[in-house]
Amino acid sequence: MKKETVWFEVEENETIAECLDRMNSLGYQVAGRKEEPLFAEVNGQPEPIKQIIMLKGIKEINN
């Protein structure tokens, strides 16, 4: 069996649980998580404005 990996971003108006439900409906199981800050320039200085949450999904594919 081959495994397919896809990163899912938790959307702006979506909870983590809703993103997990979306992944499951597409046949993916969660296998990891990462977060990274999103910055914007304010008065010439970088300011964090939100966290981007990504969930790693894995799905087994039959060859």
Give the terminus-to-terminus CA distance.
6 Å
Total beta-strand segments: 3
Could you say which overall geometry the principal axes of the C-alpha atoms support? elongated
> What Rg is obtained from the alpha carbons, in whole angstroms?
15 Å
Beta-strand residue percentage: over 45%
Lateral arrangement of strands in the main beta sheet: 1-3-2
- Count the domains: 1
Briefly note the structural class of the backbone. alpha+beta
Low-confidence stretches: none
Helical residue percent band:
10-25%
Taking the sheet with the most strands, its summary is:
3 strands, antiparallel
Number of helices: 1
Strand and helix order: EHEE
What are the main properties of this structure?
NETI motif-containing protein; 62% strand; three-stranded antiparallel sheet; 63 residues; NETI; alpha+beta
Quick take:
The protein is 16% helix and 62% strand. By secondary structure, the protein is an alpha+beta fold.
Question: Strands, helices and their partners?
Answer:
Elements: E1 2-9, H1 16-25, E2 29-42, E3 45-61
Antiparallel strand pairs: 1-3, 2-3
